[in-house]
Amino acid sequence: MEEEMENLREHETWTLEEPPKGTKPIQCKWVLRKKVNATGEVTRYKARLVAKGYAQQKGIDYEDVYSPTSSFDTIRLLVALGVQMGWILEQADVKCAYLYGQLKEEIYMEQPSGFVCTGSEHLCCKLKKSIYGLKQSGRCWNKLLDQRLRSSGFKRNPVDPCVYGITLRSGRAIICVYVDDILTISQNEDVSKAVKELLSANFECKFAGQVSYLLGVEFTHDRDGGLTLSQKAYVERLLKRFNMENAKSVATPMEARPNFQGEQAVSRDVEKLPYRELVGGLLYLSQRTRPDIAFSVGKLSQFCSNYTKQHWDAAKRILRYLKATKHAGVKYKRNSEPLTAFADADWASCNGDRKSISGYIVFLHGSPIAWRSNKQTSIALSTMEAEYIAVSDCTRELTWMKEFIERLNIGQVLSKPISIMCDSQAAIAHANNCIDKSRTKHIAIRYHFVRDKVNDGVVELVYVPSSENIADVLTKPLSRRQHQAHVERMLDVGTIA
């Protein structure tokens, strides 16, 4: 707590003043937490003073609150490019980031417990900086970060507002910002040193060297210049939290033909089970490094308000699968393969509303950088329509990626159409031929986006047999043989028990 108070004083976070008559100061509290490393070991005990921002009123003590954060798709894409080009990947952390932000609103806060100034007990803290807990703190920090990076010569990527680039005499560098965590990708050592100096000139930063543990993900470097992203320690913590360390392993995350029933009331016995907590923990994992469980977790997340013992057992089965594959991760290595994607759909597979499941996965230099598995928002009337919607979703992602990569100004120009592998010849024909027949004219206009991109030469649809469509694992539960075959093409898995 003493260290946190010293940081607050150094940043001149507030001044002690008597609040205007009728002003009700917001309260604050101390939040204590442990910081852990990649193996789950405690590295630091931290105390943070947090304002109770829930008492703020819009239009009085805050206005805009939106602050951008980079997606993990962006981080994986940058890692893949960095490994391919042989650039240096490092990480940095801005100390007390929010305390740099300047407040424009007049906000009064009670003095923190344990540190009330003797003789000034009647005074309150008039905040000058965006202390943690305020609704607008994230926005204030991001605005100041953007201003200082721009003034230092960095240029913001127009496609992703959390990615910046800079060209120096010795080479080029890219930085990706996630709140106060920064991933730097430098062309050489001289550029890396220059970037650190620029960041240090603006903020008090902690430079951890070569990236090893960032945003809950372990980064493992190999001798060949490759890099593997995994979450073994996180999986082990999940297993321990839900008492599954000694459970029997299974080879697939879900049974081949599950029959989940929805629209049921949650019984009192089942309601006590931490189903939502488990599904939330699995979602975090599936979105970071484990596309192989994306479908299973997405399916179970549909029952968070009406789950049964059957759903709970299915969620525990995913833990049993993770126990067998906890070492699995996404491996990036130098490879000449271009940007490609696989798209698939499982038509009318949802028992309740008969909606279809879309899935796609994008590869860059032979490694996955983005994936999705989700229920379609409209009911498809045929297999072709469901596949067509999935291809359209994938096309939107690829269009963004193409522009993002080219805007990085690192010599990557995607002049050839990006291949989307699809196992529906009817969907491919419908995308390539702009003809609306009586059975297809009802399809929503927004899904015809794929046609424009095919005509513009941005993407091309390529037929692939269902047995070779990797996106199959994102739309339905598969047999052990099929599941393992697809997963081995996505991840570095080792041996599945």
TrEMBL record:
Pfam families attached to this UniProt entry: RVT_2
Region feature Disordered, mapped onto this chain: 1-22
Reverse transcriptase Ty1/copia-type domain residues: 12-255
Chain intervals with Basic and acidic residues compositional bias: 1-21
Parts forming coiled coils: none
InterPro entries given in the database record: DNA/RNA_pol_sf, RVT_2
Matching PANTHER family: GAG-POL-RELATED RETROTRANSPOSON (PTHR11439), REVERSE TRANSCRIPTASE TY1_COPIA-TYPE DOMAIN-CONTAINING PROTEIN (PTHR11439:SF463)
Protein name: Reverse transcriptase Ty1/copia-type domain-containing protein
Upper lineage: Eukaryota, Metazoa, Ecdysozoa, Nematoda, Enoplea
